[in-house]
Specification:
Four Helix Bundle (Hemerythrin (Met), subunit A), about 0% strand
Length: about 180
């Protein structure tokens, strides 16, 4: 079987193998998001940079595979979610060159429900997702907004403002700001 045919079957097929493949991608996305959240509270290290680079290469490979089976690769590349994928890839690979783009990694959460096929399959397979799909999507968007804004504030202020010691401090104040009512 040709590689293109195999990939097309995995990304677009209805076989059990294709469904497992797409759930595997979803699991990888979830694990990556957990990794992003956990490591945002840790000091940078060579080991984390190596893991970031490995994740970036996997995401880049998956992105290229998706583009290779696309009916309109240029459209998918320039689509907002394609641009998000590129930002995520750069953010994982950027530590190699010393850039502080870690906050872009939170955009990875947007990929969770990027595929209508996986979303509709999850709604069919899991009654909880079916009942709460809109809430799950809204929660994902809120998470991305909160985490990206927290990380942007941290990246732009932690060297200038002595009150900002850790990203958890910024997260606390970001949540407090969003939940404060007058």
């Amino acid at each position: 079987m040709a590689t293109g045919t195999l990939l097309k079957g995995l990304y677009e097929g209805k076989s059990r193998r294709a469904v497992r493949f797409r759930y595997g991608l979803l699991s990888f996305d979830l694990l990556t998001i957990i990794y992003v959240v956990v490591t945002s509270f840790l000091e940078e290290s060579q080991v984390l940079q190596f893991i970031d680079a490995a994740i970036g290469l996997v995401v880049f490979g998956e992105f290229l595979a998706r583009l290779s089976v696309s009916r309109r690769p240029l459209h998918d590349l320039l689509h907002p979610l394609g641009l998000v994928d590129m930002a995520v890839i750069i953010s994982f690979l950027a530590p190699i060159s010393g850039h502080g783009l870690g906050f872009l990694r939170a955009l990875r959460a947007l990929r969770l429900f990027r595929s209508y096929r996986i979303a509709s399959r999850m709604q069919r397979d899991f009654p909880f997702v079916r009942r709460n799909y809109d809430t799950i999507v809204a929660g994902t968007h809120l998470f991305v907004f909160l985490f990206v804004m927290t990380a942007i504030v941290y990246e732009t202020q932690h060297r200038r403002n002595p009150a900002i010691g850790t990203i958890s401090t910024v997260l606390y104040f970001s949540v407090a700001t969003l939940t404060t009512t007058v």
